[in-house]
Amino acid sequence: MDSFSSLLQLFQARWPAQRGIARKAGIDHARYNRLVRGDVAPASREQVLAIAAALLLTADETDRLVAAAGYLPPSLPPHVLADPAIRSVLDIVLHPSIPEDERVAFRLHVEQAAHWLLAAHAAREDAGNAEARVPHG
Known about the structure:
Blueprint: H1 4-12, H2 18-25, H3 29-37, H4 45-54, H5 59-68, H6 84-93, H7 100-133
Helix pairs in contact: 2-4, 4-5
């Protein structure tokens, strides 16, 4: 996963002046420079959304920037957060004080479990479909 500052630098490169973006986002220019350099973290999810709006980011780009800052992306459907298991996974993956290598390992375990379950489900469906095609009688 990209860091907030690396994504901000990538998106900022489209614009000639940081000062204008900082002003549009309602952020002090010096603080915005520190955000771009990675010296400080965003103050809030709202601040990240304001920066995304000032940079005219797409919905996907906004999601990436917000997630990189450690917040839940705006495109995440609200009903998803009602599931305690999904909320727990998101809390771990987005938790800034958990070391990145531990978050990477956790994501790999979750991904492996998901692949295993989907493969098992597909195999059961295939077996059921094959059984339905066998003529009886």
